[in-house]
Amino acid sequence: MTTMRSRVAGLFVSIFFIVALGACEAPIRVSDYRQNFAIDVVEESVSMAIVAPEGSQLLGAAEQTMFSNFVREYLLRSSSPMGVSVNREVLSEIAASRHVEAIRDMLRGAGIHDSEILVLPGGTETGITAVLSYTANVVVLPECEDWSSSSSYNWANTQHSNFGCATQTNLGLVLANPGDLRGADSMDNFDGQRGAVIIRSYRSGAAITGGEAEAAQ
């Protein structure tokens, strides 16, 4: 009877240690490092305030640089239209309409199509006459902090706990538009043969007709 009790007690002790060790094990990893260290993409709101009292120049020299950088980031990372809100508490109705048109002209001149510009209700921030805003794609890099594996001896020939993390991090850092990870842009209906004609004309220095130039845009 004593022997049976000892065996049962030993069995419970073994089960306890197995469960305890299992709880301490590292997360199960697959062979594909792209899944172990996935690059996430989230969205954030980006905005730029314009302070231009009625009758003054819309953008100063410093604001022109900020505007150029702002639009460049929009063209690279945007996931929404460019919002334009004019503060009608500060500007008169006529001045507000002029502000909207002036901003539209600037955005179109910077490469943003008119269909991508959305006029929003104005805010009431003191001193701010207009706000440009959009939603941008932002990359979230994986964390390379698991150094539990030995970097010298690996008799089991298994992957290091951080294998592939640096590659994924570098990829995330060089992405121009993190939204590309969610899905590639759809192809347009441009004719490949017409494109080849335009390229040959460009290389040979020949003139490109108006129809060909319009099709290339």
Description:
The structure is a single chain. The chain is an alpha+beta fold. The chain folds into two domains: 29-186, OmpA-like domain (60s Ribosomal Protein L30, Chain: A, 2-Layer Sandwich), CATH 3.30.1330.60; 190-217. The protein is built from seven helices and four strands, in the order H-H-E-H-E-H-E-E-H-H-H. The chain has helices spanning 2-24, 33-36, 61-77, 93-109, 165-174, 192-204, 210-216, and strands at 40-50, 82-86, 117-120, 130-140. Strands 1-4-2-3 form a four-stranded mixed sheet, with helices on one face. The chain is flat and about 75 Å long. Mean pLDDT is 77; it is low at 21-25 and 212-216.
Name the CATH superfamily classification of the largest domain.
OmpA-like domain
List the total number of helices. 7
What is the overall shape?
A: flat
Total domain units = 2
Query: Could you tell me the mean pLDDT?
Result: 77
Per the CATH scheme, the topology name of the largest domain is 60s Ribosomal Protein L30, Chain: A
The amount of helix comes to 40-55%
Alpha-beta classification: alpha+beta
Mind summarizing the main beta sheet? 4 strands, mixed
Please identify, by name, the CATH architecture of the largest domain.
Answer: 2-Layer Sandwich
Strand order of the largest sheet: 1-4-2-3
